[in-house]
Amino acid sequence: MLFSLSSLLYPPLCLSCDGLLEEDEKHLCQACMDLLVPLDPIAHCIYCLRCLESEKFRVCPECRGKRSVFKEISSVFPFSGPAGSLIKGLKYNQQPYLAESIASWIFVQWESLKWPSPDAIVPVPLSWIKMNRRGYNQTALIAKQLAQYMKIPVLDCLQRSSLSKSQAGLKK
Questions:
Q1: pTM score, two decimals?
Q2: What span, in angstroms and rounded, lies between the C-alpha atoms of 92 and 98?
Q3: Residues 43, 52: contact at Cβ < 8 Å?
Q4: pLDDT tens digits for 57-69?
Q5: Nearest-10 Cα torsion for 165, 168, 169, 172
Q6: Helices then strands (H, E): number in the chain?
Q7: What is the DSSP string of 17-67?
Q8: Which of 3, 14, 65, 106 allows an S-S link to 29, with CB 3.0 to 4.6 Å?
Q9: Which pLDDT score, from 0 to 100, does residue 160 have?
């Protein structure tokens, strides 16, 4: 009875489109879930994730000939649509429970890439201002869950040295 009453007062809504969620749906409606198509790493540049015109080269024309500090990068989804809604919900809308779903998608993508398991996961620390405002570190929540899936430790060994600009406002 209590669940039904709370559902009437606060119906569960999709985090992306604000549509009503069905009883078996969690966070996203089926239409938005269908939009979550993992990036195919073969079709994207290994340094910047731009779409490749040809799968012949694993590096896009803009990155060809440039040195990169990374051997290879990947992403689970493009940062738009439902995936962007989940990340924004975790970071800005007091929805720390989303870290579990995000970590599971990262783990599935990691496994599909057949990348070796890392020795540990190191979350990026927040500034004390953001930590006080948000109440939790979203990267630490994702790291903790991902480390459980991968059966590796989380090392909380980084320290933020300055109050830097928010990534959300920066260019590439």
A1: 0.81
A2: 12
A3: yes
A4: 788 888 888 888 8
A5: 100
A6: 6, 0
A7: T-PBPPTT--SS-HHHHHH-----GGGB-TTT-PBPS-TT-SS-TTTTT--
A8: 14
A9: 84
Percentage of residues in the chain having pLDDT higher than 70: 88
135 φ, ψ (degrees, to nearest 5): 90, -10
Using DSSP, state whether 154 is helix, strand or coil.
Answer: strand
In this structure, the chain runs to a length of 172
Joined together, the tokens standing for residue 8 give 């009437």
- Bridge partner residues of 154 (DSSP): 121
Q: From CA 11, how far away is CA 72, in angstroms rounded?
A: 42
Buried b (16+ CB within 10 A) or exposed e, 128-140: eebeeeeeebbbb
Contact 47, 73 (CB under 8 A): yes
Tell the residue number behind the tokens 């993992």, with chain if given: 38
